[in-house]
Write a structure and sequence with these properties.
With about 110 residues, the chain is an alpha+beta fold. It has a domain at about 1-75 and about 100-105: Ubiquitin-like (UB roll) (Roll), CATH 3.10.20.90. It is about 20% helix and about 20% strand. The protein has a five-stranded mixed beta sheet, covered by helices on one side.
Length: about 110
């Protein structure tokens, strides 16, 4: 099966099996987006449930062609930039427990009401 992982204007098609865990999907994404699994949060759009790393896709009702939103830990891009520039980072620049808001536009969001 495959799932569609969306973030902003990007969509990643991930081949997987129902017996794989959400952590396995995050590891596959790590090779594509260069963000470690600990900085990723996956949300099943059909239910708005955050996927748990240790549970299988089947256990979490993720099916073939499901759409999953990807959120990254807040402050990661700023942190990476500062690390590159300064080689040190202040711990107060990001809250390690906060993730980006998930918003994936749906076709009906663009339909005008007459």
């Amino acid at each position: 099966m495959y799932i569609r992982v969306k973030r902003n204007k990007s969509t990643y098609f991930i081949q997987c099996e129902p017996t794989e865990t959400a952590l396995s999907i995050k590891q596959k994404l790590h090779s594509i987006i260069d963000q470690p699994p600990s900085n990723q949060q996956l949300v099943l759009l059909a239910t708005n449930d955050v996927l748990e790393d240790s549970k299988t896709l089947a256990d979490q009702k993720v099916e073939n062609d499901s759409i999953v939103a990807l959120a990254l830990r807040k402050g990661i891009l700023l942190t990476l930039l500062l690390i590159m520039i300064l080689s040190t980072i202040s711990p107060c620049l990001s809250d390690d427990d906060e993730f980006e808001e998930v918003f994936i536009a749906r076709p009906e969001d663009f339909m005008s009401s007459s």
